[in-house]
Design goal:
17 strands
């Protein structure tokens, strides 16, 4: 049976300090967040167990699974960069933007998705769909091909964004935020069609919290 990690005393103290230093939005005032701010993390971790799909955060550095509702993913100041030419969906060329890249950079989150806890043969075409329904603030999720051309998966200015992932898989993407010094919330859902019954199974909508530090 899968379990969600419980906070250690040290982690809880660190989380409390971080939350005190950064005022949480009104809807999260009563939440004591664990803070994750660097290393490999599968933000959209998908699992299938006992007939149900589940979304969680798989923190590879700590070797634990975390509850999205009580975890703040912190974007450190080193993520600040400028919008490159040809990336108009991020803003004007040269504008400031904060990006968690799809490559491992020391001091930043190496953030992606994982479906390794979903066995092959359960869902039609061994495929699941991830949907970001909504976001607070200016958020873009995208991939970049070998030629440097981006594919936008979600743009908060355009509304919901969906993309397919394979079961038993793992991948990374780029996470861009338009401003520092504030909270962001992404509302996410994973779903798939069962091979045996042709019925759709969903995680329901799950909220993820990010804080972009100055």
């Amino acid at each position: 049976m899968r379990t969600i990690a419980k906070r250690s005393a040290a982690t809880a103290l660190a989380a409390t300090a971080a939350v005190l230093a950064v005022a949480a939005p009104a809807t999260a005032q009563n939440t004591s967040f664990d803070i994750v701010d660097e290393g490999h993390v599968d933000v959209f971790g998908v699992a299938y167990e006992d007939g149900a799909l589940d979304l969680h955060i798989h923190d590879d550095e700590a070797g634990v699974e975390r509850d999205p509702g009580s975890t703040a993913l912190r974007v450190n100041p080193a993520a600040q960069t400028t919008v490159p030419a040809g990336y108009d969906f991020l803003g004007e060329t040269g504008d400031d933007v904060w990006i968690l890249p799809d490559t491992n950079v020391e001091g930043l989150l190496f953030a992606g998705w994982a479906s390794e806890e979903v066995p092959d043969g359960v869902f039609v075409d061994d495929t699941l769909t991830l949907t970001v329904h909504d976001a607070w603030g200016d958020v873009d999720l995208y991939t970049v091909d070998d030629f440097g051309d981006p594919t936008v998966l979600f743009d908060s200015d355009q509304g919901p964004g969906s993309w397919d992932i394979g079961t038993g898989g793992h991948g990374h993407l780029n996470w861009a935020f338009g401003e520092a010094g504030g909270w962001y919330k992404l509302t996410v859902e994973a779903e798939g069609v069962l091979e045996s019954t042709n019925q759709t199974v969903s995680t329901g909508e799950v909220d993820y919290w990010f804080y972009v530090a100055c």
